[in-house]
């Protein structure tokens, strides 16, 4: 006599694709991850009532005047006569770099002041929508100065950070609810340009130049202007020509 049919036990249904981390991290799901980097910032900006932005670019390595001056002061206090040959050369190089950093720190302070003035003016335009909100790349240097100036003026500011090992971190002056992190460079570039009304470019390296050219191509010429920083940029804001 043949045995009866085997009774199968019911199985748990597999996770839906959007709940499966292995699938979401796969190559096949890359379009979903790209779309997420468009939709998530869109929702965050809408929730905060952001109408448009002013984007500020520049070097991540430029320090504040306070930081640069402090480093130079400490080096000058070092008793050079007690240093040996190699140590003396190293100290001389460090002193030269500190003097250069102090000179360049004026751009940090100008970016900070300019951001403060823009934000102070923008706050008079009302909260819904928030107009001309300062937006930076989220890191240190000129980016920090931009967010810092806005924070010191009592306004919100945006930071568009990028995942770079051992290099980038979100600075402390970004409004937490507007601190956005990206994996894909091109999606970050899109959001720099998407609602920008102006680009303000301070001294920087290849990254700054890359952002300038890409954003210049993405922005409609009639809707966006680029301002290249000079030593009198901040001083001239708010003055009549």
Distance between the termini: 105 Å
Specify the structural class.
alpha/beta
Rg to the nearest angstrom?
Answer: 25 Å
Q: Proportion of β residues?
A: 5-15%
Uncertain parts: 231-241
What does this structure look like?
With 241 residues, the chain is an alpha/beta fold. It has a domain at 42-62 and 109-236: Rossmann fold (3-Layer(aba) Sandwich). It contains 8 helices and 6 strands; from the N terminus they run ααβααβαββαβαβα. It has helices spanning 21-24, 30-47, 65-76, 85-123, 142-152, 185-194, 206-218, 233-236; strands spanning 53-57, 133-136, 157-162, 179-182, 196-201, 225-228. A 6-stranded parallel beta sheet has the order 4-3-2-1-5-6, sandwiched between helices. Strand 2, helix 5 and strand 3 form a beta-alpha-beta unit. Helix 3 (65-76) packs antiparallel against helix 4, helix 4 (85-123) crosses helix 5 and helix 6 (185-194) packs across helix 7.
At a glance:
The protein has eight helices and six strands, in the order ααβααβαββαβαβα. The longest helix is centred in the middle third of the chain and has 39 residues, at 85-123.
């Amino acid at each position: 006599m043949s045995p009866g049919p085997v009774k199968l036990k019911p199985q748990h249904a597999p996770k839906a694709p959007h709940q499966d981390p292995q699938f979401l991290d796969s190559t096949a799901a890359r379009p979903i991850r790209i779309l997420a980097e468009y939709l998530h910032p869109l929702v965050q900006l809408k929730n905060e009532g952001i109408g448009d932005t002013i984007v500020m670019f520049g070097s991540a390595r430029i320090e504040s005047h306070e930081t640069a001056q402090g480093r130079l002061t400490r080096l000058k206090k070092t008793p050079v006569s007690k240093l040996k040959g190699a140590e003396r050369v190293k100290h001389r190089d460090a002193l030269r770099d500190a003097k250069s950093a102090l000179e360049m720190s004026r751009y940090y302070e100008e970016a900070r002041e300019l951001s403060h003035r823009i934000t102070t003016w923008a706050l008079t335009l009302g909260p819904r929508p928030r107009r001309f909100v300062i937006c930076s790349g989220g890191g240190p240097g000129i980016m920090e100065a931009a967010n810092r100036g806005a924070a010191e003026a009592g306004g919100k500011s945006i930071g568009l950070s990028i995942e770079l090992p051992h290099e980038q971190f979100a600075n402390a002056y970004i409004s937490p609810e507007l601190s956005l992190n990206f994996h894909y460079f091109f999606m970050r570039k899109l959001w720099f340009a998407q609602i920008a009304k102006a680009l303000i470019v301070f001294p920087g390296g290849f990254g700054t130049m890359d952002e300038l050219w890409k954003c210049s191509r993405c922005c409609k010429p009639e809707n966006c202007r680029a301002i290249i920083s000079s030593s009198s940029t901040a001083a001239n804001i708010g003055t009549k020509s």
